[in-house]
Amino acid sequence: MTANPGRTEGDSWDLASSVGATATMVAASRALASQGPDALLDDPLADPLVRAVGLDPFIRIIDGELDFDDDPLLNRRARIEQMTVRTRFFDDFFTGAAQDGVRQAVILASGLDTRAYRLRWPAGMVVYEVDQPQVIAFKTDTLAGLGAAPTAERRAIGVDLRDDWPEALRRGGFDVGRPAAWSAEGLLPYLPPQAQDRLFDHITALSAPGSRLATEHVPDPNAFTNERLQRITERWQRAGFDLDAADLFYQGQRSVVVDYLSGHGWQVAAHAVRDLYAQHGFEFPEELTAAFGDLNYVAATLK
Ligand SMILES: C[S@@+](CC[C@H](N)C(=O)[O-])C[C@H]1O[C@@H](n2cnc3c(N)ncnc32)[C@H](O)[C@@H]1O
Q: What SUPFAM superfamilies does the record point to (predicted)?
């Protein structure tokens, strides 16, 4: 069963609604992790971006007015560590690809990600950001208004990732003849299972040998059970995010990312998030698995 009554085929959103608000939620965690003298992340634009979206609960979270000390995933420290593990994984992925000579990055579902503005990209780097048109336009305008300058050549592509985004990317200047580094961070559950396969098919078709891809992987093809979605929803609602995960995520059996990519010519390395926590010296919150399944971050290279 892959239908979702909360979603429709061509549904669209801004950063304050539906799937778009989840981008603001994770940006609020990056803003938190970038605060203070012992900050674990350095994403100074996350704070003004979240404020510009204007969703009150997220502003109160970054202002320290809302904390959930008793919640193993929502308390301030847990949010910071969760986002630090995730952000550093994808940062290191892009930095490593650039060091190895890749000069095109494609950030799929870029949301309020500011890597195009904060990573130290080499000269000649082109960073594509792909997300819904309203999301792309809001971020571009807000950051321009803040006087922020990209640290690479940023090309923003507003398109639905269920549509013909490869054509939009090519029109934006993407060079299929050169290797690229792709990321799909925090995206897959918001795509229907077939659209997830299509996304990887498109990425593979657009990738010259040596291209790389970073994304998330849960070994269980039925990871998003009703119980898990309920846990996520309860947490979102406690945090003031008044939406139902079951209305945003697509349930039903989906391809296992590692198997799918391996079967399509990618050499895949999966990193259990539990191990990444340990590498950072953080204690792994078991509740993360209860809510999201056995999460891994994967980095793959096209053979
Ligand atoms: C949880 S946010 C993650 C944003 C960003 N990757 C990050 O980690 O901060 C999910 C993002 O996926 C985007 N997204 C989901 N489905 C999409 C679709 N069909 N087309 C374009 N963007 C989509 C949303 O607009 C949103 O920005």
A: S-adenosyl-L-methionine-dependent methyltransferases
pTM of the model: 0.96
User: What is the average per-residue pLDDT within 226-231?
Assistant: 89
**What is the number of alpha carbons within 13 Å of residue 167 lying toward its C-beta?**
4
SS3 165: helix
Cα–Cα dist 184/214, whole Å: 6
Q: Is any ligand 1 atom within 6 A of the Cβ of residue 7?
A: no
At 140 the pLDDT is: 97
Class of domain 80-300: alpha beta
Q: For residues 81 and 139, what is the distance between their CA atoms, to the nearest angstrom? A: 25
End-to-end distance of the chain based on CA atoms, in angstroms? 34
The label of the residue with tokens 């926590």 reads 277
Maximum distance among all alpha carbons in the chain? 52
CB of 129 within 8 A of CB of 158? no
* Best mutation site among 132, 134, 136, 232 for ligand 1 pocket (most ligand atoms within 8 Å of CB): 132
Q: What is the mean pLDDT of the chain?
A: 94
Predicted pLDDT at 292: 86
Q: Does residue 184 contact residue 109 with C-beta atoms inside 8 Å?
A: yes
Per-residue pLDDT reduced to its tens digit, 68-110? 888 898 899 999 999 999 999 999 999 999 999 999 999 999 9
Q: Which of 187, 213, 295 to mutate to test the pocket of ligand 1 (most atoms within 8 A of CB)?
A: 187
Kindly list the domain boundaries of the chain, sorted by start residue: 15-65, 80-300
Mean pLDDT computed over 228-243: 87
Whether residue 46 has its Cβ less than 6 Å from ligand 1: no
Q: What ipTM is given for this predicted complex?
A: 0.99
